[in-house]
Amino acid sequence: MSATLIDGKAVAAKLNSETAKAVAELAKQGKTTTLAVVLVGDEPASQVYVRNKIRTCGEVGIISREVRMPATSTTEEVLAAVKALNDDDSVDGILVQSPPPPQVDEEKVIEAIDPDKDVDCFAERNVGRLLIGQKEGFRPCTPWGVIELLKHYNIDPAGKHAVVIGRSNIVGKPMAALLMQKGATANATVTVVHSRTPDISRYTRDADILVAAIGKANFVRGEMVKEGAVVIDVGINRIFDEKLGKNRLTGDVNFEECVEKASMITPVPGGVGPMTIAVLMQNAYTAAKLRFEKKN
H or E stretch including 8? Predict the structure, then answer.
C-alpha cells in the first residue's frame, strides 16, 4: 500500500483564512493585532523561521514587529527587550525565537514573557492550563497543529494507541497531554518514548498513531511502523544529499520506507511545519482578543 499524504499546506491555508477573517473583524471593533518576534543572533535556520512567521503575519492582517539582537547579547539584555515588549500596550503577543545563543538562559527568558502575551504557550501558567484541560487561551503551536491535521482528516484518536517519540517541552510533552485529554480529537492511550527508552521499535510497532519528534533524521524506519498506522513527522533536519550535491530538509521519519506501511503520513517539508505557524497566528489573534475584552 502507499499512504495518503497529509497536506499541511492546504490545512494551514484554511486556518489562516479563518484567522484573517477574525483579525479583520476585531480590527473593525478598533483593535489591531500585533505580534513581536525577538531574534537573537544570525543562525540561518532561525532567520528562515522568523521570515516565514512575519510573512504569514502580513497574509492574515497581523502587524509584525521584529526585534533583532546581536549574537553576543546577554541574558540580561534579552530580558530587558522582553520587558519593554511586556510593557508596550500596543504589543499583543511575544515570542523569542528558539534556540537563542548558548550564553542566553532560555528558561529565564520564557518565564519573563507576560503569560497573556505568551503566544508560544511555553510559560508555566499556560502549560499548566493545558495539562488540566482548559479550553480557552493559548495552544502549543506544533502539537495543536498536529491535532488540527488529525481533525481535518477525520482521524479520531479515541481508543487508539498513540506513541510519541520525544519528550521535549515544545512538542513531546504537550503532544502527549493533548492526545490523552478528554474531548474531541483526543482520548487516546498514549505512550511516550525517548532517548533512554530501550528498544523503541517495540512500542512504535504497536502505534495506531505515531508522532515522531526526536530530532534525528530518518530515525523511524519502515520496520518500526505498524501496517496502516497514521505517521506524523514533526522533525525538521538538514542533511547533505549526495545526489543533489547540497543540503535538503528531511524529517525524523524515513519517508520512502514508511509511506509503504502507513495509511496516512505527513511529508517534510509541507506537513506539520505550516501548521505550527498557522496556530501561532491563531494564538496572536487570541491574545489580542482577550486583551481587548479585558479593557471593554
Answer: helix 8-28
- Supply the residues annotated as catalytic: 53, 97, 120
**Burial (Cβ within 10 Å: 0-12, 13-18, ≥19) of residue 55:** exposed
- 253 φ, ψ (degrees, to nearest 5): -110, 135
HSE at residue 121, side-chain half, CA atoms within 13 A, is: 30
- The closest alpha carbon to 35, from 295, 277, 293, 275, belongs to 277
Return the residue matching grid coordinates 491555508. 13
Nearest-angstrom CA–CA distance, 54 and 245: 30
Q: Are strands 230-233 and 209-212 parallel, antiparallel or unpaired?
A: parallel
pLDDT in tens, 175-230: 999 999 999 999 999 999 999 999 999 999 999 999 999 999 999 999 999 999 99
DSSP assignment string, 70-121 = -TT--HHHHHHHHHHHHH-TT--EEEE-SSPPTTS-HHHHHHHS-GGGBTT-
CB atoms within 10 A of CB 274: 22
Answer yes or no: are the C-beta atoms of 57 and 91 closer than 8 Å: no
- Which set of grid coordinates corresponds to residue 296? 471593554
Report DSSP state, residue 3: P
In this structure, what are the phi and psi dihedrals at residue 244, rounded to the nearest 5 degrees? -85, -25
Q: What's the pLDDT tens digit per position in 71-125?
A: 999 999 999 999 999 999 999 999 999 999 999 999 999 999 999 999 999 999 9
pTM value is 0.95
Return the sign of the alpha-carbon dihedral for residues 174, 178, 181, 187: negative
Query: Does residue 1 surpass a pLDDT of 70?
Result: no
